[in-house]
From TrEMBL:
Subcellular location, record wording: Membrane
Organism listed in the record: Bosea vaviloviae
Record keywords: Membrane, Transmembrane, Transmembrane helix
Protein name in UniProt: DoxX family protein
Bilayer disposition of the protein: Multi-pass membrane protein
Classification via InterPro entries: DoxX
GO cellular component: membrane
Residues spanning the membrane: none
Length: 126
């Protein structure tokens, strides 16, 4: 699960850095310096992905990626509610509905695969 999440965030971070303009339309109007925020989110995704693979950084990376997923949720909502076209992403509710519903699972996944939480597979105490 950790490697899959790292690959997911590495790819997403690369997209944010390679094509920040594609993500500008989904930025909430209240976000300051939207282009810079998109670039910083790409950097955060890449650093989080790398951190998941380094044992001494794993927990911090998991917490950071969970917080990141909370912070980008307004952009995901805007993307869905305003039916904004982002090249390479579907535009239907078959995409947006599950994406919005699964956001809490993405947060859990970051915390779980970083070892920050162990639910539902509780670790046995020695």
């Amino acid at each position: 699960m950790r490697w899959l999440m790292a690959a997911f965030y590495l790819a997403a971070g690369g997209l944010h850095l390679r094509s920040p303009e594609a993500f500008l339309p989904i930025m909430p109007d209240w976000a300051p310096a939207p282009r810079e925020v998109v670039i910083l989110t790409g950097v955060a995704e890449i650093l989080g992905a790398a951190g998941l693979l380094v044992p001494s950084l794993r927990k911090a990376a998991g917490i950071g990626l969970a917080l990141y997923a909370v912070c980008v949720f307004p952009a995901n909502i805007k993307h869905a509610m305003e039916a904004i076209v982002v090249p390479g992403l579907p535009t239907s509710w078959w995409y947006h509905g599950p994406r919005l519903v699964l956001q809490p699972i993405l947060i859990w996944w970051a915390l779980f695969c970083s070892g920050t939480i162990d639910w539902p597979a509780r670790r046995r105490q020695p």
